[in-house]
Amino acid sequence: MADAMKFSDGAGYEAMMGVWSALIGADFLDWLDVPDGSRWADVGCGNGASTELIVRRSKPTSVEAIDPSPAQLEFARNRHHSGVATFTLGSAVQLPYPASAFDVAIMALVIFFVPDPAKGVAELRRVVRPGGTVAAYAWDIEGGGFPYEDVHLAMRSTGAEPILPPHSEVARLDALYRLWTDAGLMDVETREIVAHRVFPSFDDYWATAVSAPGIGQVLAKLGAQQVSRIRDSVRGSHGLGELTVQGRAHAVRGRVAT
Ligand SMILES: C[S@@+](CC[C@H](N)C(=O)[O-])C[C@H]1O[C@@H](n2cnc3c(N)ncnc32)[C@H](O)[C@@H]1O
Questions:
Q1: Does residue 17 line the site of ligand 1, with CB under 6 A?
Q2: Confidence (pTM)
Q3: Which residue segment(s) compose the domain that 48 sits in?
Q4: What's the average model confidence in pLDDT over 155-181?
């Protein structure tokens, strides 16, 4: 069986993906336009990057944050200071919350990791009150929107396959739309969100990219020569100095019927 991605380093995650999540998430939260003082669920909160963004930008009354990775949760608990959020170990497919407990529930960069994405959306819908919002965003992996896509391409050119989320296909705009409408959500809309991030040097970019579990776990099993070929190929398209990298995500939102 192919390896699965392991999220076991909250600090490493922050540089590799938390920064990206905050860049995309800012646009996403503006788009949701949820009133201040709402009760949020952040499903697949990881190291708390999405949770802290909700706390800062959306002024929630409460955030229930949940993730199956104890290491990510430990980092999330340590970085959280306002006391608005509670962090729980668990999975999107079986949320330990009663029906209609929240005004809004989101999955930020999570839906393609959920073993049964439709079940995950059904759970989000169950725990949100009538009239509330169910929303998500995920990298457009199939369309090349993953921020470290050039490393994936360079790996493949040497015969090495990066580890992808098990359900990359659900991040297509049409797939997200169908998941949300099939779950019975109303007023469903999708959109693309693009973010840019500046890396001070190629070395910084490379160190950050290889800390992505789907890249680093594979490179760790390759020989030094093959890793050098991959690195040289990525550097060839950037040079050694400062570089700006683009990531592109797909977002979806819908409302629970009243
Ligand atoms: C890319 S991270 C996103 C974390 C955070 N939401 C953010 O925006 O940075 C994906 C997270 O999904 C979590 N995850 C994997 N399977 C899950 C599941 N079945 N239910 C909920 N979360 C899951 C992982 O543990 C990981 O923390």
A1: yes
A2: 0.95
A3: 10-146+163-197+246-255
A4: 97
